[in-house]
Description:
Strand content: under 5%
Largest sheet: none
Shape: globular
Order of helices and strands: HHHHHHHHHHHHHHHHHHHHHH
Structural class: mainly alpha
Number of helices: 22
Distance between the termini: 28 Å
Amino acid sequence: xxxxxxxxxxxxxxxxxxVAGRAHWYNVVIRTPCPVFRRHRRPGGAVHGDRMNATFxxxxxxxxxxxxxxxxxxxxxxxxxxxxxxxxxxxxSPALFGQINVMLQILGMSxxxxxxxxxxxxxxxxxxxxxxxxxxxxxxxxxxxxxxxxLAVAALSLFAAPIAAVYHVPALSSGxxxxxxxxxxxxxxxxxxxxxxxxxxxxxxxxxxxxxTLMSVLGMVVGVLLAPQDPSGxxxxxxxxxxxxxxxxxxxxxxxxxxxxxxxxxPLTAHRMWRMLRYGAPIYAGNIAKAFQQSFLVIxxxxxxxxxxxxxxxAMKLAGYLNIIxxxxxxxxxxxxxxxxxxxxxxxxxxxxxFRYNNFIxxxxxxxxxxxxxxxxxxxxxxxYATVPSVVYLRLMAVGVLFSSVSRLGGMLLAGVGRTRANxxxxxxxxxxxxxxxxxxxxxxxxxxxLVFAVGWALSAASLFWFLLRDGLPLDWRRAFVEPLLPTAVxxxxxxxxxxxxxxxxxxxxxxxxxxxxGTWLLERPRAETAATA
Length: 534
């Protein structure tokens, strides 16, 4: 089944459903998805074809679930931004503000090494085998993640003093040691959320993700209010965040226990742990390789020009909103494909839908950023940041994120049918260029490092296509990539024409976005389904 039993109640028709009844896009995007793929009866009693109805319900499920995940991610991003703004307002010292951000950045980077892929394995096996799998994978995933989290705490505590010495802030050491306990709680939180993802309870998953971020931000703000306005306050802030994480961890674990009666104590066997690690480790390694790329790019660019590092950071913030789109599809893709892993035809259709809708959204937004980078930078960061290098960074980052969406989404789709090596190797292809070529390129010109980033992801996308064909998940290429290009191509013509006309940019932007939306609707409107439901 696509949704849990609790979602059946949510599918009850409302007054809005009755009024909007047969509007296709209302049914696809807004209505809660049907709990099962079954033969669907029209109000008049006619029966739709199984294949047509399955495709329609898959579209509705995919778009609805992705919209829920996107909403959660967007709220998370907003909460983090708001927390940074509040903290900046409360702290009078720019130096202390920078020290706190360094501590948070180190803790965040350390969090990349949690779980060893056991959370991804839990999502996969639960999605494939249903609630009965929770009793066999939940306990081992918790135990393994707790062990990995303990190792992360020990490693960070061991290196806390040398790290503090690098930044010449001795108090940073105590802050990192106290804050390292968030790694333990986060490792458990990740497994609990993975269970809800595997059961396709995306609304609950988004709620718990937002709760985790909200509690973390509240802990940080409370810590700033209680801590002295000097480096000794780092430990107080880290302690408040750790306490908030303990509360969140308790909420998540209790939710899993009461909803699914998941036992914590399950006999651990080497075979079971090996099976979970064999599946999750390539995803884990690939995600680490991806996550380090942008931070590493900022570091090597800053070594050449600290000003350019600021321009690149601004570009990453704007391009980060493109990242959220694919991230939302990734959250849904793993359980969406896992359920259809037994059927090559169903898996191919679902993978095509994921790429199709990701491209329908991402292509016009990427084009919009690439054509209007100067205006966007000026509006958000000020005209003094809208320099030529800044514009180049934003365009290259946007293109790089677009190519990365192919590799990241494709890797997750293949992981959904049990093949995880693509997720690992496509990340390595892109990471190798960034880690080995970018440091050499920035010596000649700082913007060349970001060009290497974009080229690396383009090669990674090409390698992903090879994996799709080799691993037996060929797409409907026309529906996945060719058709989504058409509205964007028309939009590009309109935007470029508007740029040639005095004061024509704003009308062209509005007309271009509207044209892309209408073109998408015309391409997506299923004529056969419309005729069947008329």
